[in-house]
Design brief:
By secondary structure, the chain is an alpha+beta fold. The chain has three helices and three strands; from the N terminus they run E-H-H-E-E-H. The protein has a domain of 48 residues. Strand 2 and strand 3 form a beta hairpin.
């Protein structure tokens, strides 16, 4: 379809796996993506979605900070 790309094309363009792109579509991180049968159609002008995973390690040690890991 003109003006759209598949998950495979988006994965190649953004440097991601096909599975990651389809997960972004399923989770709604690519709001303009449309489902056509078993295929996701993503607008060609879309930019790569922001990766919201924590990479800084800030969550490490949260049990000690909030007292959740202590035994009574």
């Amino acid at each position: 379809m003109k003006g759209y790309m598949t998950t495979k094309e988006a994965a190649e363009k953004w440097g991601l796996s096909i599975r990651a792109v389809s997960q972004y579509c399923t989770l709604g991180k690519i709001p303009e993506a449309e489902r056509a049968g078993r295929v996701w159609l993503i607008p060609e002008e879309m930019e790569r979605p922001v990766d919201s995973r924590v990479k800084s390690g800030e969550y490490k040690g949260w049990r000690k900070i909030y007292g959740k890991g202590e035994k009574a």
